Automatic annotation (TrEMBL):
Domain U-box per the UniProt entry, residue ranges: 19-93
One Pfam family this sequence matches: ARM_PUB
Protein name: U-box domain-containing protein
Organism this protein belongs to: Lithospermum erythrorhizon (Purple gromwell)
Reaction catalyzed: S-ubiquitinyl-[E2 ubiquitin-conjugating enzyme]-L-cysteine + [acceptor protein]-L-lysine = [E2 ubiquitin-conjugating enzyme]-L-cysteine + N(6)-ubiquitinyl-[acceptor protein]-L-lysine
Pathway the protein acts in: Protein modification; protein ubiquitination
Any one GO biological process: protein ubiquitination
Keywords: Transferase, Ubl conjugation pathway
Class of this enzyme: transferase
One term of GO molecular function: ubiquitin protein ligase activity
Length: 421
């Protein structure tokens, strides 16, 4: 009996096992197929497996080794329905029915939608409908976004987004920005937005829109433009826009913010704070309070970016002062060490080093929060060398802040590997 290898999103049984029919398994992954497709040689594979096979440079059929003269993947609907029936028949074993996959967007349909959306003589309703259909296709899958990106979609959407902001056309602009927020822009496209003051201020104004989705999409596009712009002068010019920091920080402070809002909010704030001469605006906009409020809610990647932002803010006097004054800053940074990831640990240690170097109160707060134990664990861990160096420097800085009876002043500590840094 073979233990069932479950498709993504299916709950694996703890003790029961079931035989997967041989022809339901993908020849590449040997797992139950969730989206079977047939190639030109007549062999059937799971879509994700054969796409990965081709993407890595393979040009032959994995089973027959015959050349793939045509890379078209034809959905095998009959086999997929048989697999779904088998899943239902075996639900007593914990098998859940695989979903019916959405088929990739037809390139001809994408071109038609773009043409309809960009035709000025077309009715407002038809243009808006085309954009909304295009947005849904883009949201459905990476494959669809890849198909859409092969057209001149970004240039057309940029034109629609910034060409007419009259009330009767404003929804066209919002839909275009929503779609653009799902794609990377070229440097010239970023310059198209960032180098024109009116376009930047328009996006900033949308950060205060009554619709949370409009606000988040605007922040996403601003972040894309900032990170896609190589010119330091242009990045500084964008960051100098009135209220841009207030608008971005406001997204982080939305009550019960969605994971997407938090992700885009912290990405945009980090991109803004990379421009050193404008970091003080983040402090004035309430970034410290927002970061402390949301730090525990971020997913791993976003937590790393939030901690990197905190470390950046520690590098300016007003930021260091505001972070030190916040009651949660030091305890949270101490707690995060070795808890999230190596990067998060490195950023947290760097921020603590800046705070404790500047303020005696931060030293006392760190010691009270148990930083000694955390740092000793850190220097003995497999974390990055940079994180260890920061920890060692911080240990040395805090040595005289520890209580008399602590390990800091013990003979064991004096002889330890971390005492001689």
């Amino acid at each position: 009996m073979n233990i069932l290898r479950m498709p993504r999103g299916v709950i694996e049984p703890l003790e029961l096992s079931v035989q997967i029919p041989y022809h339901f398994r993908c020849p590449i992954s040997l797992e139950l197929m969730t989206d079977p497709v047939t190639v030109c040689t007549g062999q059937t594979y799971d879509r994700i497996s054969i796409e990965s096979w081709v993407a890595t440079g393979n040009t032959s059929c994995p089973v027959t080794r015959a050349p793939l003269s045509d890379f078209t993947l034809i959905p095998n609907h009959t086999l997929r329905r048989l697999i779904q029936d088998w899943c239902v028949a075996n639900r007593a074993y914990g098998v859940q029915r695989i979903p019916t996959p959405k088929q990739p967007a037809d390139p001809a349909l994408v071109r038609s939608l773009l043409n309809q959306a960009s035709t000025l003589s077309a009715s407002f309703t038809s243009r808006l409908s085309a954009l909304r259909t295009l947005r849904q296709l883009a949201r459905d899958s990476d494959k669809n976004r890849s198909i859409i990106s092969t057209t001149n979609v970004r240039q057309l959407l940029l034109s629609i987004a910034f060409s007419n902001h009259e009330n009767r056309f404003i929804d066209l602009s919002h839909e275009s920005i929503s779609i653009l927020s799902m794609f990377n822009l070229s440097e010239s496209e970023c310059a198209f937005v960032g180098s024109v003051f009116e376009r930047v201020t328009y996006l900033v104004s949308l950060l205060f829109h009554s619709s949370i989705e409009v606000r988040v999409n605007s922040a996403a596009l601003l972040e894309i433009v900032l990170t896609g712009t190589r010119s330091p002068e242009l990045r500084a010019q964008i960051c100098d826009a009135d209220d841009i920091f207030i608008g971005v920080v406001g997204i982080l402070r939305i009550p019960l913010a969605s994971p997407r809002a938090l992700k885009i909010g912290i990405k945009a704030l980090f991109a803004l704070c990379l421009v050193k001469q404008h970091r003080h605006k983040a402090i004035s906009a309430g970034a410290v309070e927002a970061l402390m409020e949301k730090l525990a809610e971020f997913e791993k990647c976003d937590a790393e970016r939030a901690l990197a932002t905190i470390e950046l803010l520690c590098r300016i006097q007003s930021g260091c002062a505001a972070l030190s004054a916040h009651a949660l800053t030091v305890p949270l940074l101490v707690k995060i060490i070795l808890k999230v990831s190596e990067r998060a640990t490195e950023y947290a240690a760097g921020a603590l080093l800046s705070l404790c170097s500047a303020y005696e109160q931060s030293q006392q707060d760190a010691v009270a929060a148990g930083v000694l134990t955390q740092l000793l664990l850190l220097v003995q861990s497999d974390c990055t060398e940079r994180a260890k160096r920061k920890a060692q420097t911080l240990l040395k800085l805090l040595r005289h802040s520890w209580p008399q009876d602590s390990i800091a002043n013990s003979d064991d500590y004096a002889c330890s590997n971390v005492a001689g840094f």
